[in-house]
Amino acid sequence: GGVQTMITLEKAVEALKASEAKAKELGVVVSTAIVDDYGILIAFSKMDGALHVSPHFSQAKAYTSASLGMPSGDVAAFAKEGKPYFSLNTSFGGEFMVIAGGVPVTKSGKVVGAVGVGGSIDVTQDEACAKAAAAVLEQ
Questions:
Q1: What CA–CA distance (Å, rounded) separates 38 from 105?
Q2: How many CA atoms lie within 13 A of 63 on its CB side?
Q3: I need a surface site. Which of 90, 111, 117, 125 has the fewest CB within 10 A?
Q4: Of 120, 74, 81, nearest to 97 (Cα)?
Q5: How far apart are CA 106 and CA 84, in angstroms?
Q6: Which residues 6+ apart lie within 8 Å of 36 measured at CB?
Q7: pTM to 2 decimals?
Q8: Which tens digits make up the pLDDT trace of 48-61?
């Protein structure tokens, strides 16, 4: 009974496939990370030929979105000098990242985790892949 408020491994693996399918459609290769509401990794995939930095990027974007409950790209506006999240990207040993590609996953208005995607030259493509994965997780 009730709404499933946890991201299951089974769903996370399904979401990885959705991200990869979107990447193929866009003609890019990416890494995708699915995390829980604490930013802890549930599932991860690195497509063949994805940039060697993309696993770290995808996980940092997912961690950022889960922790702050907002898309990682939206954090940038608050991370400038004089703003509340200034120096966020150097805090916590670089676990946070203010580049687009991380999206929170919400169920019944509660953040239950996040998806992070890295590897595209155009970060809007990372975000498109992340949104495809999040859509699966929010079903």
A1: 12
A2: 17
A3: 90
A4: 74
A5: 24
A6: 6, 7, 42, 66, 112, 113
A7: 0.89
A8: 999 999 999 999 99
